[in-house]
Write a structure and sequence with these properties.
globular; single chain; two-stranded parallel sheet; Leucine-rich repeat, LRR (right-handed beta-alpha superhelix); about 35% helix; about 160 residues
């Protein structure tokens, strides 16, 4: 089952149980999405991540480090109606990430990919405001940090973290 399908199932289940008010169970506080059975990264569309965070605003731990966020993703549900979803720019940008993390103010642990962090400027610095309970931020990479990033530049990217 792909992360797209897991998210669709969680959101559908939540909507049917809560009467469609789109706010999920407070009991779901930890979620890790990512690896396939071979350990490769998997794709997740921004629109799916937005639906997930809107449905589960009480998440305390979110692991997105092993996802290719924003990539067009295939689902096993061929009947998915794209026209009903809000169209979200698939480009990684500050505004999109700030909007996403603003939906999860209870986050305590967040795991992100270094690739995502290098594509945005202000998100890391804004996390303490958006998620005041945030105690742990892990930036994960499976590839070596490119040579053109010096230690100083990596520290500058992460300077907003507390």
């Amino acid at each position: 089952m792909s992360p797209e399908d897991v998210i669709a199932a969680l959101v559908t289940m939540t909507n049917s149980i809560t009467g469609g008010n789109h706010v999920g169970f407070e009991a779901l506080t930890k979620l890790e999405l990512g690896f396939d059975i071979f350990g490769d990264k998997v794709d997740l569309r921004w629109s799916s991540l937005v639906r997930l965070l809107e449905a589960f605003p009480y998440l305390e731990m979110l692991d997105l480090a092993e996802l290719n966020l924003g990539a067009p993703a295939a689902t096993t549900d061929n009947n998915e109606q794209e026209g009903d979803e809000e169209i979200i720019d698939e480009k990684v940008d500050d505004r999109t990430l700030l909007r996403l993390f603003g939906k999860t103010p209870h986050l305590k642990d967040l795991y992100l990919s270094f690739i995502i962090i290098t594509k945005v400027d202000n998100v890391i610095g804004a996390l303490p405001t958006l998620c005041p309970d945030l105690k742990r931020l892990d930036i994960i990479t499976r590839i070596p940090i490119p040579d053109f990033y010096t230690i100083h530049e990596v520290k500058a990217i992460l300077s907003g973290c507390h």
